[in-house]
Amino acid sequence: MSSARYERLATFDEAQSPPEYELEDARPQPPTYPVDPRFERPTPSRYSRAALLLFLVFNFWLAFHLREAAGWVGIVE
User: Fold this and answer.
1) FRET partner for 36 with CA separation of 20 to 30 A, picked from 25, 63, 67, 68?
2) Quick one: pLDDT at residue 30?
3) Would you say 21 and 29 are in contact if contact means Cβ atoms under 8 Å apart?
4) Helix, strand or coil for residue 51?
5) Which 3 state secondary structure label does DSSP give 68?
6) Is 0.70 surpassed by the pTM of this model?
């Protein structure tokens, strides 16, 4: 059996140290890309959110109101 011990080889040039993020996690980080401004949309205002909710409530109310006016409520065969 050989008495030679395993020595880990350097994965980077000794004159150049690895980036800081590789020292912390020991995993290479994915490359960063510039952010596309089309996908960075501003958050809608509170008033527009409230208006959307009121619009939905009104549509449900209108649907049930028109259903009652057409005589569809209470019909059992």
Assistant:
1) 25
2) 74
3) yes
4) helix
5) helix
6) no
